[in-house]
Structure formats: structure tokens, C-alpha cells
Amino acid sequence: MAEIQKYMRQMFIILYKEHEWTIEMIAKQFRMKERTVAAIVEKREQTSHCLYCGKELKQTLGHRQKEFCSPACYRKWRKAHVFSSTAKHVCQLCGKEFINPYHLSAKYCSKLCRDKAYKKSRAI
Ligand SMILES: [Zn+2]
Ligand SMILES: [Zn+2]
């Protein structure tokens, strides 16, 4: 794409998104066809990038927005994401750090600690 077109596109998108211009207003201001402006502004809407590898994704209008280029990327992203978000679990009974990729709100490092904690709460 030519530099000038890229520049125009960015400007249209800023006007449309941040200044809340309508497509009609932009078309009038720049003496362009509304259809052309709409195509430029909405084209941007349809492209996004894979959350894992950053590859450009082609979105299909009327379909749910894709977030990943492939199921493999989704699995890798999920794994990385889940593990990083659970890395700082601290057992509420023994204070040990642990990772639980399946329960984001896990409180205890093991079944043993969970059972002990349960018994403790019952004893009070
Ligand atoms: Zn990907
Ligand atoms: Zn524990």
C-alpha cells in the first residue's frame, strides 16, 4: 500500500474512533465516496493479530472474532497464560509456593493441606 494511503487510513480511523466523526462527515471533508471511506475504516476492524505469535488474522464478517491463527497457538498461549497467572500461589496453610494450572483460585498446595485446613476450620 502507498504511504499516502496508509496515512489517510490512519487519519480516517482516528477521526472515526477518537473524534467520533461519521463516515459521511469524513467522506464530505475529504471529497471521497462514502463507500470508499467505509471500506477503509471497516477494513481495519476486520484485521487483528494472533495473541500468541502476532500473525495477522483475517476476520470473516458476521463471525465471532478470531484471536488465534491456529489451535496450536491457542494451546500454547493458554498454557503460558495460565501458568504465569498461577505462578504466585501460596498455600494458605503451610506457606509453600505452588502452581495449579487448573484452579486459578486454589488455596492449598496439596490435598493434605486442604484436608488439614478443613479439619482446623471444623475444630473451631
Ligand atoms: Zn499464531
Ligand atoms: Zn501446603
Question: What's the total count of β strands?
Answer: 4
Tell me the radius of gyration: 25 Å
User: How many structural domains?
Assistant: 3
Ligand list: zinc ion
Summed up, the helix count is 5
Oligomeric state of the chains? single chain
Beta-strand residue percentage: 5-15%
Main beta-sheet annotation: 2 strands, antiparallel
* Helix fraction bin: 40-55%
Order of helices and strands: HHHEEHEEH
| Biggest sheet: strand arrangement | 1-2
Compile the SSE list and pairings.
Layout: H1 3-17, H2 23-29, H3 34-46, E1 47-49, E2 56-58, H4 71-86, E3 89-90, E4 97-98, H5 111-123
Antiparallel strand pairs: 1-2, 3-4
Helix pairs in contact: 1-3, 2-3
One zinc ion binds next to loops.
List the main descriptive attributes of the protein structure presented here:
single chain, 124 residues, two-stranded antiparallel ribbon, elongated, binds zinc ion
Please tell me about this protein's structure.
- This protein is mainly α and 124 residues long.
- It has 3 domains: 3-46; 50-86, no CATH class; 89-124, no CATH class.
- The protein is built from 5 helices and 4 strands; from the N terminus they run αααββαββα.
- The chain has helices at residues 3-17, 23-29, 34-46, 71-86, 111-123, and strands at 47-49, 56-58, 89-90, 97-98.
- The strands form 2 sheets. A two-stranded antiparallel ribbon has the order 1-2. Strands 3-4 form a two-stranded antiparallel sheet.
- A hairpin with a 6-residue loop joins β3 and β4 (97-98).
- It is elongated and about 80 Å long.
- The mean pLDDT is 80.
- It binds zinc ion (2 copies).
